[in-house]
Amino acid sequence: MRRKLFIIAVVVSLVLCGVFALLWPLNRTYHEYVTYGRPLDANGERWLFNLTADANGVALTCAFDHRTDPSYQPLLGWRFVARPYPSSRGPFKLPYQVSHSLLGFTYAHEPRRIGYQRIPVVTVNDRALTVPYWFLIVVTLLLPAIALHRWHRRRRRIGENRCLTCGYDLRASPERCPECGAIPLQP
Ligand SMILES: [Zn+2]
After folding, report:
1. What residue ranges do the domains of the chain occupy?
2. SS3 call for 69
3. Which protein residues have their CB within 5 A of the ion that is ligand 1?
């Protein structure tokens, strides 16, 4: 069971790594986002969370919206949007003033914004944390690297007649590992 979960995690990790490696060059001229539109409450307000892939990396944004036009009703439910971005306008970056930046990680905070893209909403405490592609790729390569290391070690132990669990030399005791008690696979 644990082994199965590990293999699933490795495969998911590899797929994500491929996605990030693809988005990195692609998002010079594209951007994508995933969002969940919640209804506005009785005061015409709501929290809004967004996951956006721009030219720098993947950003988690969080903002508080307040409607200024009572007739305005935002789109509700889950949305995934992938849009081309004109290359003449340079790489797409989220429209934020970055306040902190380190090795591609950025943090931005806008205390107040009015009617972005003509939407009749005042947005307060708009925050965006961007994680760069290089970091996402390194992180998603960790599990596959561990899996590769284990596979390599297992093959070496089989070749050297060592215990697959702990690496103890089994030439003198081929039935059972005296170190950890594991029963070796019968060839
Ligand atoms: Zn052993």
Report:
1. 2-136
2. coil
3. 163, 165-166, 168, 177, 179-180, 182
